[in-house]
């Protein structure tokens, strides 16, 4: 399972960096999204995701820290997803406004 997760993170990161280097703004936006997905998966992987374990200990019990899920990586990734969605929407609006003013979607503004 760890190998599949590592390959997925690598594919997302590699595709995101490749798209960031493209001249079209829409490809740059998709590249940023893929890179953020790779970072979110990495945070999940480093956060020791535990399946089927409660995120909080019950009141009045002294529990083993290995027996419960750490809620911090889940909260960080959830926050990153919300911020990433808002930034993608902002980038798309800026891209549409820039295309309306310049008539092209090239990053360098020279167009085809």
Radius of gyration: 19 Å
- Please provide the count of β strands: 0
The count of helical stretches stands at 3
Could you name the ranges where pLDDT drops below 50 across 5 or more consecutive residues?
Answer: none
Largest sheet: none
Characteristics:
112 residues, mainly alpha, 3 helices
How would you sum up this structure, described in words?
By secondary structure, this protein is mainly alpha-helical. It has helices at residues 2-20, 25-46, 71-102. α1 packs antiparallel against α2 and α2 runs antiparallel to α3 (71-102). It is elongated. The mean pLDDT is 83.
What is the fold's blueprint, element by element?
Elements (H helix, E strand, L loop, with lengths): L1 H19 L4 H22 L24 H32 L10
Describe this structure in a few short sentences.
By secondary structure, the protein is an all-alpha fold.
